[in-house]
């Protein structure tokens, strides 16, 4: 597919927004499950957003990048949706951990 850089960037941005919206709607899916299955989670996305902002010289705090992904302050999301990780989940994460 031959598309120009502007269109490619717009498409990638649309996909990112859709992914974020999907994760916001799936509050039943815990970050630890995402990490264990896919190797990334909502926090990873927010960290990547912050890193991209930093690389462009844009002023975006860690809290702001997390709120952009979670759709609310991170602490609010944790209190509302985050469950306690099971021993099995923690063991799987330790085994699969790749620096996140």
TrEMBL record:
It holds the Pfam family DUF1244. Residues 29-95 form the SMc04008-like domain. This is SMc04008-like domain-containing protein.
């Amino acid at each position: 597919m031959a598309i120009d850089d502007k269109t490619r960037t717009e498409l990638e941005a649309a996909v990112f927004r859709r992914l974020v919206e999907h994760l916001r709607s799936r509050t039943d899916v815990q970050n630890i499950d995402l990490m264990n299955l896919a190797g990334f989670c909502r926090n990873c996305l927010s960290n990547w957003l912050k890193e991209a902002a930093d690389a462009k010289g844009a002023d975006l705090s860690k809290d702001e990048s997390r709120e952009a992904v979670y759709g609310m302050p991170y602490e609010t999301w944790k209190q509302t949706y985050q469950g306690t990780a099971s021993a099995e989940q923690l063991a799987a994460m330790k085994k699969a951990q790749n620096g996140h």
